Amino acid sequence: MELSNRPRRLRGNGILRKMVRETRIDPSSLVYPMFVMEGSNKKEEIPSMPGQYRYSVDRMEEKLAKLQKAGVNSVMFFGIPEHKDEMGSGAYAEDGIVQKAFRKAKETAPELYLIGDVCMCEYTSHGHCGILCGQEVDNDKTLEFLAKTALSQVRAGADMVAPSDMMDGRVAAIRRMLDQNGYSHTPIMSYAVKFASSFYGPFRDAAGSAPAFGDRKSYQMDYHNRREAIKEAMLDVEEGADILMVKPAMAYGDLIREVKDRTSLPLASYSVSGEYAMVKAAALAGFVDEAGIVCEMAVSAFRAGTDIYITYFAEELAEFMNEGRIG
Ligand code: PBG
Fold first, then answer.
1. 136-158 as b/e, with b when 16 or more CB fall inside 10 Å?
2. CB distance 200 to 223 below 8 Å
3. Model pTM?
4. Along the 327 residues of the chain, how does pLDDT read in single tens digits?
């Protein structure tokens, strides 16, 4: 048979397959999201996320050490406060839970790079991502509080802040606050393209942050929209974001690619709690091969244009990369 092209020629040998591999990744691109809680000697499994835990600050070290050993050098902290109130005061309290976690991590794992998720939903009694005015989240009033939250995290030891609230103008407000206080070198990773998504369900169980009424559709994006994703990304570039993010990751590969092609900032994508929960549940039922699925999902995010992959599977993925299974 005369065939001018035989793509299989490049697939016949393992060395050759690796030689022509188009997507190359290593553990330095991974960020692990970690839940920290009040109390001492606590490590509680999150029911909808088997294998993921809420740690008290004195128990974080065991996970941080494992991550570092695998080559994951960056962690993003989410705080679960003991008390929540209307104004989300735990988000910007000097002795807030996440602030304590930053201080402790800087002490016990000083070489780790620490990122703070900046939002109010874990700290407000109503579970919304900002300050309410009646039943609505007041955008401009919330900006002050987000900026205060970012500053308090950086003062406690955060190396980078990542606003996830989806208020308009938050990147500029946070940038101004950090600059005015001598932190002009601290980068902002903006959750620029963040959708109102059912994929966040398990996170809200983990953090007890489901809204007490309504939903987040007046601030998070409608998942039918593609041009709006570009608009959000561009606005955050103008406001001074250093890194952009698309969230969720799985099911949003088209937008990862599109934002990547239209901007010049490093791009993160966040494989969220629902993605983790689905893989775990199917694997525990024996329906899929967990390792295979985890690798394929991660590579697809990188192939779409991800530079930085935020995932609850960070430690496992780093090990798969170290073993040469992917990479
Ligand atoms: C805070 C925040 C959320 C997530 C990251 N930051 C929850 C939400 O927006 O409801 C979701 C992460 C995940 O599902 O893993 N606003």
1. ebebeebbebbbbbbbbbbebbb
2. no
3. 0.98
4. 999 999 999 999 999 999 999 999 999 999 999 999 999 999 999 999 999 999 999 999 999 999 999 999 999 999 999 999 999 999 999 999 999 999 999 999 999 999 999 999 999 999 999 999 999 999 999 999 999 999 999 999 999 999 999 999 999 999 999 999 999 999 999 999 999 999 999 999 999 999 999 999 999 999 999 999 999 999 999 999 999 999 999 999 999 999 999 999 999 999 999 999 999 999 999 999 999 999 999 999 999 999 999 999 999 999 999 999 998
Q: Is the peptide bond before 248 cis (omega within 30 degrees of 0)?
A: yes
Q: Domains (ranges, CATH) in the chain?
A: 22-322 (3.20.20.70)
* Closest among 160, 157, 83 to 118, alpha carbons compared: 160
Phi, psi of 315 (to 5 degrees): -65, -45
- Tell which atom from ligand 1 comes closest to the C-alpha of 165: 16
Positions marked active-site: 194, 247
Q: How far is Cα 287 from Cα 243, in angstroms, rounded to an integer? A: 37
Residue of minimum CA distance from atom 8 in ligand 1 = 200
Q: Which residue has the CA at smallest separation from atom 5 of ligand 1?
A: 164
CA distances from 307 to 24, 161, 234, 268 (A): 11, 17, 18, 6
Q: 200 CA distance to ligand 1 centroid (A)?
A: 6
- Asked if residues 74 and 32 have their Cβ atoms less than 8 Å apart, the reply is yes
Residues framing ligand 1 (Cβ under 6 A): 117, 119, 121, 129, 164, 200, 203-204, 272-273
Nearest CA to ligand 1 atom 6: 164
End-to-end CA distance of the chain: 36
- For residue 203, report the distance from its CA to the centre of ligand 1, in Å: 6
Q: Are 197 and 220 in contact (CB under 8 A)?
A: yes
Give distance in angstroms: CA of 196 to centre of ligand 1. Answer: 10
Crossing angle of the two packed helices 170-180 and 227-239, in degrees rounded to 10: 20
